[in-house]
């Protein structure tokens, strides 16, 4: 395993007011970095970064990454993009623009400053995969014209741009393919499965399983994911990725619902609703590369991660 060889000081995090971005910023500030958070607050929320107000090493800028950005930083984490299906399908054209124009602008910024840049890519680049689990070498099975395409193809094009800037302009790039992640500060209203099930159970409402619940996902706890981001960015520039970061423990959606209900109790029933179009049937990362190259693997398993997430949503629901 390679040892981390460099550390940065003033760090730009786009999408920093969102779920993952706000956790990343906490970790960067904890280790002494300065952070500039750039976010247009489309899906993010100031409440995710309220606790940082008054920290002299933290700054917030409301800005859309589709527009050029001229700032001076030592490293860039590009996370800006709506991430859940209901949000990214709300304005699909804007979603593609955010991934593509956002990547171009942030890559242009990184090129001018000659600083490393990290891209929050996604397991969605594998589409509805025909190879299982998914290694980074798998090229994916993506519908280019479906309702998920704005997100999937936008992220695929962003990866293309990252690798072309790397080859053409010698930019140091870091591409992480993130698998389903959950934890405190997930948006309760963004329709993602963990937040939906937990909030439904806490309200005593029925738990909505789409389809028959036999589709699978592998859920990574947010703290583990952020540790993977930092390791990828801190390791030498020869490591570009793409690299899968996720938890390989795979569950069916029905198993997840049962586990949430067993933990929260109450009168909720499991009900079935139609499966959304192009919903992938299975997803599980092959994390051999992250283990070998970054010495990274997830530590928090679903049982413990769900307890922490439920504790967070209990406070949210209580107001
Ligand atoms: P999120 O919606 O909580 O955060 C995204 C942030 O980006 C929000 O704060 C939003 O306001 C901001 N944003 C959106 N469009 C923008 C724009 N044009 N300009 C500036 N800011 C903009 O989602 P998240 O779960 O924190 O996801 C963060 C990143 O990780 C995204 O790029 C997402 O695609 C990727 N990702 C997340 C997951 C996951 O399971 N959470 C999985 C794969 C990939
Ligand atoms: N860009 C930016 N900040 C910078 C430098 C560039 O936002 O500090 C944007 C710029 O507006 C451009 C994009 O990044 O549209 C790509 O920049 P690049 O230098 O690669 O391309 P060019 O400017 O030659 O089109
Ligand atoms: N899902 C579900 N009930 C819900 C929300 C989601 O059964 O209330 C399913 C969804 O159809 C998908 C899986 O859970 O099969 C994960 O959905 P999510 O939107 O969280 O993530 P993604 O589909 O992007 O992996």
UniProtKB/TrEMBL annotation:
One record GO biological process: D-xylose metabolic process
Domain NAD(P)-binding: 12-308
Location in or out of the cell: Cytoplasm; Golgi apparatus, Golgi stack membrane
Pathway the protein acts in: Nucleotide-sugar biosynthesis; UDP-alpha-D-xylose biosynthesis; UDP-alpha-D-xylose from UDP-alpha-D-glucuronate: step 1/1
Domain of life: Bacteria
Top-tier EC class: lyase
Any one of the GO CC terms: cytoplasm
Protein known as: UDP-glucuronate decarboxylase
The species this protein was found in: Qipengyuania atrilutea
